[in-house]
From TrEMBL:
InterPro entries tied to this protein: GH, GH26_dom, Glyco_hydro_26
Family recorded in the similarity comment: Belongs to the glycosyl hydrolase 26 family.
Active site (record annotation): E166, E275
Record region (Disordered): 1-24
Keyword annotations of the record: Glycosidase, Hydrolase
GO MF annotations in UniProt: mannan endo-1,4-beta-mannosidase activity
GO biological processes: substituted mannan metabolic process
Domain annotation GH26: ranges: 34-340
Protein known as: Glycosidase
Length: 350
């Protein structure tokens, strides 16, 4: 029986500012006790030449976050009228054992048969980024890699992993400001540990919109990063209430959408918008402009935050009919990113 979804708080809050969306606990279904023992997978003997990531399509594939709950993803698809192309899943963050044993989280989506962007914590709360930078915890990263190497790859054969997300904020234990060298060293240790297991892994380096830190100071280097990512949310407490002006503010910020696209282009890397969300029934113009932005750039994927944990952005259902219609038009109309399919028998159609 599925247990009640609960929060785990990874920080007391985040810095106030245009990018803030309030305290950053993250919501997932708690496993009934610690995950099962790690299933051994032989290490690959050496690394083959890694194939490059496939170029992004004209309209980037749409993924969704649904509180690590497959049933909520299916509800989103029924409302959308399309199949999402991939999932966005957080693995355990509370302890080192949870980081090293992601089996429970993998199992929740075993029957879904979709690739996932795996958000893997660098360190748990109250751990030392400096100690991780020394290589002390590499065995946990290797254990996690052995399990994730068994998961379904993307069509290009890669398994995508997001590390140290939103590191330019102050709400996660891997916050990089003032500890940039330790962040970079830890990121590299994780990448090296994963690559020792499989050459399928590709790694996203991710920042959060609206912070003042220069994120380039914590860039691990082109040899360790495959995808340049950003998270952003429209929250009217910190951004203009007009949807067009709000999008333009995010686009034109010093470390906004233009910045991340230029940063990636200079390094010949694709981009990704791993978390994004809107609120209210007037967000249609914002959604339209974002979809147009994505179609004009080398964006590998986007993930909509369809939940109310941390940020009340759940768009499925009829809470915001005009915004919902605009979202479906942008991401489910012919030529958009998601694959239109008839409703699955036994599932409610929208």
């Amino acid at each position: 029986m599925r247990q009640q979804a609960m929060r785990q708080r990874n920080g007391e809050g985040r810095a106030a500012g245009v990018g803030a969306r309030g305290p950053r606990p993250w919501r997932r279904l708690l496993p009934p006790g610690l995950a099962a023992p790690v299933l051994a997978v032989p290490l690959l003997a050496g690394l083959a030449a890694a194939p490059a990531l496939a170029p992004a399509a004209q309209a980037a594939p749409l993924g969704v976050y649904g509180a690590n709950d497959a049933s909520l993803v299916r509800e989103f698809e029924d409302w959308l009228g399309c199949k999402v192309e991939h999932l966005m899943i957080f693995t355990g963050q509370r302890t080192w054992d949870e980081i090293g044993k992601p089996q429970w989280f993998i199992q929740q989506f075993h029957s879904y048969d979709l690739p996932a962007l795996w958000s893997v914590a660098m360190i748990p709360k109250n751990s030392s980024l400096r100690e991780a930078a020394s290589g002390r915890y590499n065995r946990y990263y290797t254990d996690a890699a052995r399990e994730l190497a068994r998961t379904k790859p993307f069509p290009d054969g890669t398994i995508r992993v997001r590390l140290g997300w939103e590191m330019n904020g102050d709400w996660f234990p891997w916050a990089a400001e003032g500890k940039e060298a330790d962040f970079v060293a830890t990121f590299r240790h994780i990448v090296d540990s994963f690559r020792a297991v499989s050459d399928k892994f590709r790694f996203e380096w991710n920042i959060n919109y609206g912070q003042t830190m220069d994120p380039a100071k914590a860039y691990p280097g082109d040899d360790y990063v495959d995808i340049i990512g950003m998270d952003f949310y429209w929250k009217k407490q910190y951004l203009p209430s007009d949807p067009v002006r709000a999008f333009e503010a995010i686009r034109d910020d010093r470390y906004g959408l233009r910045y991340i696209e230029n940063f990636a282009r200079q390094r010949n890397k694709p981009t990704a918008y791993s978390e994004w969300g809107v609120q209210g029934d007037d967000a249609g113009p914002f959604i339209q402009r974002f979809q147009e932005w994505v179609s004009r750039h080398n964006v590998l994927y986007t993930n909509y935050w369809n939940h109310d944990a941390d940020y009340a952005g759940k768009i499925s259902g009829n809470i915001w009919p005009r915004t919902g219609a605009a979202f479906r038009q942008a991401f489910c109309a012919p030529g958009a990113s998601a694959r239109t399919v008839p409703p699955t028998p036994g599932r409610a159609s929208r």
